[in-house]
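Same chain as my last thread, 345 residues:
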Amino acid sequence: MAHKIERLWIEGPAGAMKLLVLGQREDGGHPGVLWIHGGGYRSGMPEMAFFSRAADLVRYFHAVVVTPEYRLSGTAPYPAALDDCYVALLWLKEHAAELGVRSDQIMVGGESAGGGLTAALCMLARDRGEVNIAFQMPLYPMLDDRDTPSSRDNHAPVWNTAKNHSAWDKYLAGQDREHLSPYASPARQTDYRKLPPCYTFVGDAEPFYDETLRFVENLRAAGVEAELDVFPGQFHAFDMFRPHSEAGVEAKASFLRHFEHAMNHYFAENGTSAGDELKPGLYRHFKGKEYRLLFVARHSETEEEMVVYQAQYGERGYWVRPAAMWNETVERDGVKIKRFTYIGP
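reply #2:
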């Protein structure tokens, strides 16, 4: 059976951002997965989903997969990639109904750097409280900018110590490595409570072996359900580079079993978006484009209220946030502050 494939552009933090949408459904009730491609934060593209575990979710479980073309570290280091992924996550939540996605089964996954962004995105979503993620799948994730026993002096195929150091240096350019946010390097997280249930797998010959084990251990210690498969002797991304090997076949099968379990057991309520509740008319209030009401915000000092709108793009009417409006700042006594703060729909 052929599955629907669509490429579309939404407004991201730095302008138009491409999304690849796989398996959009006419009927509802399907899990929605934001899948984040790998590439050491410095390379890769959404189309990598076609030969990753993401394609299996569409093929075997009729999931709807959305994968963003996030900015890469060569031109836009941290936090650009995470900011882009968060906008894509909000878009998936807000468009769940039209995509055929059940709003209580929004999940996140990815391989390698995409796994690191998966972990960081789940932490960010938990802390902001705008999206509840039902399940996370950070596969052999790139989590720790510091050397670990397995990432130090590692010369395995595909990914090794030299590549790891170079990739982290690019991604964290301009950051204070002594006081680094866990959103930048998820292994720095100290509070794992209330994060989504997790499944991952990793080979024990690759650099990310130790940080993956520690991530799972920390989740479990915080009371979060987390499952891990370790494949002896396997290098980074072995399931993609050697999919027909014994380990590759076993990794795929275990991943599918755990996803099926998640479909049947993990849910996180998200409710209806503010735009859907209000259902106002259209307005032309921002850079000559049409907008509908999304939520109300209040000026940080004057108590002035502002209505935040969403832009309509194309005949199908995709709605996105005007990030420039929401992120507007003012200077007070030499300090820049956000002009508006959210007060509800």
